[in-house]
Amino acid sequence: MYADNSKKFVAVLNKRFPVPVLMNALGHLASGLGGIVPSSETEFLEYPCPAGDFVSSISRYPFIVLRSDNGNQLRTLAAAAGEQGLPRNVFTETMLGSSAEDQINATKNASAEELEYIGVLVFGDAEVLQPLTKKFSVFK
After folding, report:
1. Rounded to whole angstroms, what are the CA distances from 52 to 12, 41, 45, 46, 49?
2. Which of 86, 95, 113, 133 has a CA that sits 20 to 30 A from residue 29's CA?
3. d(CA 96, CA 91)
4. Of 112, 119, 101, which is closest to residue 29 (Cα–Cα)?
5. Is 5 helix (H, G, I), strand (E, B) or coil?
């Protein structure tokens, strides 16, 4: 078992969407949450690789990807994470569109019932996250 698991990132993706849409959502969720959570909490470490002429920045903590059966499960997860005060990022179907402006307007003007959740990403203490995410399966 991985040693540094006191905290973790947990992404949960809606299995009803095609993989390319899910990967797009996951990228936006991760980069967006990076702007919410201070790097001191995520403990980004440098992984230098002289042989490959690069230095990667990777969080000390695990990044787990799970899947949900539907968007309502994601809505519940996002609400529960918010109630726990956990940093979270949500990606809905309104965030797909021809421009950022169109996506922002669609998201802003959608009713709660119209929002189809594609993914949710949460970061926090593993012991707080575990009860919120235990019903989800590993993404395959």
Report:
1. 32, 28, 17, 14, 5
2. 113
3. 9
4. 119
5. coil
Q: What is the pTM (predicted TM-score) of this model? A: 0.94
Using only C-alpha atoms, the chain has a radius of gyration, in whole angstroms, of 16
DSSP 8-class letter at 53: T
- Helix (H) or strand (E) holding 28, with range, is helix 19-34
**Which tokens hold the place of 11?**
């992404």
**Distance, CA of 15 to CA of 36 (rounded, Å):** 26
Strand partners, 92: 117
pLDDT-based confidence at 37, cuts 50/70/90? very high
Pseudo-torsion of CA 137, 23, 121, 71, nearest 10°? Answer: -60
Contact 28, 91 (CB under 8 A): yes
Task: Give the torsion sign (CA, 57, 62, 68, 72).
Answer: negative
Rounded Cα gap, residues 44 and 31, in angstroms = 13
Q: 43 and 60 in contact (C-beta within 8 Å)? A: yes
**Average pLDDT for the chain:** 95
